[in-house]
């Protein structure tokens, strides 16, 4: 797991491009990392959320400075990442050991999972931190509010937004090992009624070989990446009650990889997303209407005749209402309709599916110390019929410093286009008889804030998946239950029994001195299929430690350590990786940065047979004005 170191509407507070002005003395200010949006689809204080959630702020992202956002995510409890090579290579994010298909990913409220993958999932291999201002990671089943794919949790990415009136700008440049260059520019404008933002990003690197050996083979060809990203957003107050807005992004990526047919294969990826919304505040209610669109084209060139292509779209229409009934009761309710299409070289006629969902949630402040939340949802899938899901959560604060929380939830995941259609060129038979997967998750946790400034969080979790879709036949350990058609060697089918992921998440932070602080996370995960066999790429032990220091005036540093052990047979040996970062503030708005990845030059692999970075050095400059 790489450890180098969404809101659906809008975050309650903007993410700063420049420093926020000092608040007035009589204002009550809640820190940005204490406001959660994804958990209840409306702004909620963190200590009133029953599910486990983590937040990365713009300050967190700057301190780590990682090229890929996945590297930042991997430091969080319950989250692990595996990369099959350098930037641009397939990179998976798991939550609580669950495969990427169980994780719903949103960028500025736009769902970006790829419907043409074997199972819909998002590839984090080319998503950099350029233009990102905040990330929320919600752990546990969230299908009651977000529908399918949110079986294990949600990753919600929000762009940088301006908070200073007038124009604000930020420039970042960085270069270093593997001939890596990173350029980023953010422009913001804020007035009484208008908020506008623009972000531009460019990343280019020669990289290293995706396929590699242990120890490393320096003779192998490198696999590079070039990515260009554009993002923009507008939000305008038409009146005191009506707001309209637009968020959009586009990215073009060209990445080398080692393919089946030849080593110097290339993937070209073009993606774009947009979301148009209107918010109307009326009485005790706020109504939001939205439409979003996401398109993704992937073309693979690896020496075979022609090229493999994957084209997908997702169009979503939605309405959400939030109504306060007095001061203790709030209702969240809505309806959404999503149409997905997919077309590939092996599925030239294409496939499509529509899912329409109706949901409702009641949040009740039973007492000043107890909050309860109940959410239910009904979905209709054009291919698989009706499904019901739900979530019950609560949090009790017996003291001002202690919060006890828990949640239980049911969810579902429909079969993908690929699983249903098969792939004749690979001997994979169609499977029109597949049924959706069902899930049941539990969690129980506690959060403690100490007077010294230290904090500790502990969560016990279990995720059960019934009717899991598995790959069977030739070159696998599973024999297909049904007879394969002539000419086919494999297929996807539902497997009877429960797959179980259970474990413990621990996170803590402590100020050691006025200049030193230590933060860390540890996750124990036992993930097994219905036969009791361990799931690949899910280690027992996943730990991260980060030491932050104000070394001298205007110079700060960060030292990070990651340890992975107890890996399943065939995944590789345990490893420990150390990374470091320094920042020197030349002026209030100008900083020079230094990053060192794999400081001890450890030779290791996140995915068996795929390479990782040697010791690497990167130098950069950040300036705001």
UniProtKB/TrEMBL annotation:
<dbReference type="InterPro" id="IPR000531">
    <property type="entry name" value="Beta-barrel_TonB"/>
</dbReference>
<keyword id="KW-1134">Transmembrane beta strand</keyword>
<keyword id="KW-0998">Cell outer membrane</keyword>
<keyword id="KW-0675">Receptor</keyword>
<keyword id="KW-0732">Signal</keyword>
<protein>
    <submittedName>
        <fullName>Vitamin B12 transporter</fullName>
    </submittedName>
</protein>
<dbReference type="Pfam" id="PF00593">
    <property type="entry name" value="TonB_dep_Rec_b-barrel"/>
</dbReference>
<comment type="similarity">
    <text>Belongs to the TonB-dependent receptor family.</text>
</comment>
<dbReference type="Pfam" id="PF07715">
    <property type="entry name" value="Plug"/>
</dbReference>
<dbReference type="GO" id="GO:0015344">
    <property type="term" value="F:siderophore uptake transmembrane transporter activity"/>
</dbReference>
<dbReference type="GO" id="GO:0044718">
    <property type="term" value="P:siderophore transmembrane transport"/>
</dbReference>
<dbReference type="InterPro" id="IPR036942">
    <property type="entry name" value="Beta-barrel_TonB_sf"/>
</dbReference>
<keyword id="KW-0812">Transmembrane</keyword>
<keyword id="KW-0798">TonB box</keyword>
<dbReference type="InterPro" id="IPR037066">
    <property type="entry name" value="Plug_dom_sf"/>
</dbReference>
<keyword id="KW-0813">Transport</keyword>
<keyword id="KW-0472">Membrane</keyword>
<feature type="domain" description="TonB-dependent receptor-like beta-barrel">
    <location>
        <begin position="177"/>
        <end position="599"/>
    </location>
</feature>
<dbReference type="InterPro" id="IPR039426">
    <property type="entry name" value="TonB-dep_rcpt-like"/>
</dbReference>
<feature type="domain" description="TonB-dependent receptor plug">
    <location>
        <begin position="48"/>
        <end position="154"/>
    </location>
</feature>
<dbReference type="InterPro" id="IPR012910">
    <property type="entry name" value="Plug_dom"/>
</dbReference>
<dbReference type="GO" id="GO:0009279">
    <property type="term" value="C:cell outer membrane"/>
</dbReference>
